[in-house]
Amino acid sequence: MNFKKILLLLLVIQFTGMVYGLNMDDVCSADDDTCKKPNLSGVGMIEKGKCSLTGVLLRFRQLSLLECAKKCFITSKCTSINYRQNWKLCDLVKSDDDENEIADDSTCIRSNITTWQKSLAGKCAGYKCEEGKKCEFNPHDKSLKCVKAYCKGLPNTPNATVDERFGLRRNLDTGNKYKCKKDYKMEGNPFAVCQSPGHWKVLFNCTTKAMCRTVGYTYDKSTTTCIKLVKYPKSYWEDARETCRLEPRGDLVSITTKEKWDFIIKYLQAADVVSETVWIGLKEKRWMNGDDFTNVLGIFGSLSNDFLKKPYGRIKNNLLDDHDGEPRHDHMFLCEILMA
């Protein structure tokens, strides 16, 4: 490199430091002379005190800033890097569709990889790999190939959030710790693992104490109601109840609040069975959960004077009705799993 090129390099580095308030000493470790004096005609543009919180593909420890940029170039979908000098910690970051969430972080710098020279990638410069892979150079036969590098997408972790200091990463054979959101409890081991060759395995579930997990049942959190509509031609009321009780804590549904009544009516409307007759858990003025029947505050609307002269309760056309319990062709019934 002649004197003019050396002078130009110094001017570029000095200018970059002036614009962003730092120089290579700010981002390189004290013992990393290669990082401080890169064999490049220019360095990437750097934002100090900023970090991407989302979209991290891979995380590496004990890497220099330049090694971090190189890994980004050879990794598919990597568009920027986070670097934490104190830990020599490198994040390879993918741009999210809704843009990455950027946070203030005094320990971190962020840099868009398009501002760096592609020559950092060496033989892999310009070599394209599909998502989840990285370019690898074989020095023996001078060949290039794409190898698995990280998990595509994110693990399915409903009602949970990542519990990692620097956020989720997708390195192969690496686990991410999670915690459940408020009002949910952890079942299993609190980790989602990116397993080789690139598939997520979630080792936990976040559930409420009243979570309805029986197949075919619908759960309403606001009323802690867990119900299922069953169609059973010509079903007697007693037969319907026996069917519901096959499930642990199962029974015909009891309706003791207006909120629960409203939920059930919407549920039947959504199932398009409003005009059908549906058995419920009301027998001889008593609900199957043990409560006596009362129409407090007009929960069920206006009831006829002779209502409940017949022993069994049912719903038809969004109204509460009574019946003698004999089967009909179109009778259905609503099963409920009683919550603890």
Automatic annotation (TrEMBL):
<keyword id="KW-1015">Disulfide bond</keyword>
<keyword id="KW-0768">Sushi</keyword>
<feature type="signal peptide">
    <location>
        <begin position="1"/>
        <end position="21"/>
    </location>
</feature>
<feature type="domain" description="Sushi">
    <location>
        <begin position="149"/>
        <end position="208"/>
    </location>
</feature>
<dbReference type="InterPro" id="IPR016187">
    <property type="entry name" value="CTDL_fold"/>
</dbReference>
<dbReference type="InterPro" id="IPR003609">
    <property type="entry name" value="Pan_app"/>
</dbReference>
<protein>
    <recommendedName>
        <fullName>C-type lectin domain-containing protein</fullName>
    </recommendedName>
</protein>
<keyword id="KW-0732">Signal</keyword>
<feature type="domain" description="C-type lectin">
    <location>
        <begin position="222"/>
        <end position="295"/>
    </location>
</feature>
<dbReference type="Pfam" id="PF00024">
    <property type="entry name" value="PAN_1"/>
</dbReference>
<feature type="disulfide bond">
    <location>
        <begin position="151"/>
        <end position="194"/>
    </location>
</feature>
<dbReference type="InterPro" id="IPR016186">
    <property type="entry name" value="C-type_lectin-like/link_sf"/>
</dbReference>
<dbReference type="InterPro" id="IPR035976">
    <property type="entry name" value="Sushi/SCR/CCP_sf"/>
</dbReference>
<dbReference type="InterPro" id="IPR000436">
    <property type="entry name" value="Sushi_SCR_CCP_dom"/>
</dbReference>
<dbReference type="InterPro" id="IPR001304">
    <property type="entry name" value="C-type_lectin-like"/>
</dbReference>
